[in-house]
Amino acid sequence: MFSNKKPNDQRSDVKNPNNSDFKKNNDNRSNQINPNHKQSK
């Protein structure tokens, strides 16, 4: 389960609009800011 990604690799992925992690990151950020979103659990 150990990933060889370094912190900067992850940051690059999150900042790259072509990467799937970019969308996940933006969804997560908006969910934290929005008090009306439904909890997943």
Describe this structure in words.
This protein is mostly helical. It has helices at residues 7-15, 20-33.
Keywords:
elongated, 0% strand, 41 residues, 2 helices, mainly alpha
- How much helix, percentage-wise, in residues? 55-70%
Low-confidence stretches: none
Mean pLDDT over the full residue set:
69
Radius of gyration from the alpha-carbon trace, in angstroms: 13 Å
Q: What is the makeup of the main sheet?
A: none
Which structural class fits the helix and strand makeup? mainly alpha
What is the molecular shape? elongated
Proportion of residues in extended strands: under 5%
Summarize the helix and strand pattern as letters.
Answer: HH
Question: Care to count the β-strands?
Answer: 0
In brief:
With 41 residues, the protein is mostly helical. Helix content is 56%, strand content 0%. The longest helix is centred in the middle third of the chain and has 14 residues, at 20-33.
Write the layout of secondary structure elements.
Layout: H1 7-15, H2 20-33
Region (Disordered): 1-41
Biased composition (Basic and acidic residues): 1-14
Biased composition (Polar residues): 28-41
